[in-house]
Design a protein that fits this description.
Layout: H1 15-23, E1 27-36, E2 42-53, E3 57-59, H2 61-70, H3 74-90, E4 97-103, H4 104-108, H5 112-123, E5 130-135, H6 144-155, E6 159-165, H7 172-177, E7 182-185, H8 187-190, H9 197-213, E8 216-219, H10 225-233, E9 238-239, H11 257-262
Parallel strand pairs: 2-4, 4-5, 5-6, 6-7, 7-8, 8-9
Antiparallel strand pairs: 1-2, 1-9, 2-3
Bound molecules: ligand C2E and magnesium ion (2 copies).
């Protein structure tokens, strides 16, 4: 049976719409490959939540994740994404990592480290294969409390990545207070490469910063060969984007022919 509440307020779903859709099994995960920029070898897949509404169609996570955050549902959704992503990754034929997006609000909620430990234990996934991408739709305050939680997660052997760096709420203070394993350069900067010299300067500086901090750097949203070439030449270690592979319902290893063309 399709349950459909008419008239989302201002086109936005509410808490009840999210809960109903979850009960009806309308949420799933899509997986997008992340590769090494030097040779195209597979490193990881990012798990991205998808909502296929039977009437409204595809609803972007940039619409429903903020609703989950503001309505107090983010821990429920985040836990489901973690468990499902770990479960699927445990059955892949490759030892690739799985990157799961975690809202800062979820990291702050009580018991988050045990949620991660449980997802690992149930799936049997090695902790080193799990990456948590901390997303900042609200400012990620580098409080002692949050730094303590992130430290605990790293002590499990899980990798912690700062997502969307260079856009929105990014602050250098979180990089000062906590040792992330990596950062991802936001798509808005990559999409301006190579034509915008200011974007080139900022991306170069971020890659240099990551190098100085000894952490891995990934460029998001690489859509064409010129972007691949410039981020690789600037020393970016990993890349992700439609050029390499789009998110899909199954984890699919990308073809390496691009590296022959772009070498
Ligand atoms: P994100 O974590 O930065 O994920 C990357 C977004 O860029 C994804 O959008 C992906 O589909 C898109 N993308 C990747 N490569 C390209 C490209 O070459 N060109 C273009 N135009 N787009 C590209 P998506 O799936 O719409 O997700 C949007 C955001 O929603 C994510 O940004 C993340 O912040 C959030 N999100 C998605 N799934 C989850 C989740 O399970 N939990 C949480 N907390 N947030 C999630
Ligand atoms: Mg992400
Ligand atoms: Mg991102």
């Amino acid at each position: 049976m399709i349950r459909f509440r008419r008239g989302w307020r201002q086109g936005l779903p509410g808490k009840l719409d999210l809960l109903t859709a979850r009960q009806d099994g309308q949420f799933s995960l899509a997986f997008q490959p992340i590769v090494e920029s030097l040779n195209g070898s597979l490193c990881a897949f990012e798990a991205l939540m998808r909502w296929h509404h039977p009437i409204r169609g595809f609803i972007s996570p940039s619409i429903f994740i903020p609703v989950a955050e503001s309505s107090g549902l983010i821990a429920l959704f985040g836990e489901w994404a973690l468990r499902d992503a770990c479960q699927q990754a445990a059955s892949w034929p490759w030892a690739a990592q799985v990157s799961v997006n975690i809202s800062a609000a979820h990291v702050r909620s009580p018991g988050f480290p045990s949620t991660v430990a449980t997802a690992l234990a149930i799936s049997g996934l090695a902790p080193a294969r799990l990456e948590l991408e901390i997303t900042e739709s609200v400012r990620l305050d580098a409080s002692d409390e949050i730094v303590g939680v992130l430290d605990e997660l790293r002590s499990f052997g899980v990798r912690v990545i700062l997502d969307d760096f260079g856009a929105g709420w990014s602050s250098l203070d979180v990089l000062r207070r906590f040792r992330f394993d990596g950062l991802k350069i936001d798509r808005c900067l990559v999409s301006d490469l190579p034509s915008n010299p200011r974007a080139v300067a900022i991306v170069r500086a971020i890659i240099r910063l990551a190098g100085e901090l000894g952490i891995c750097v990934t460029a998001e949203g690489v859509e064409d060969i010129s972007q691949l070439q410039i981020v690789r030449d600037l020393g970016c270690e990993r890349l992700q984007g439609f050029l390499v592979g789009k998110p899909g319902p199954e984890a699919v290893a990308p073809s390496r022919h691009l590296w022959l063309i772009s070498a």
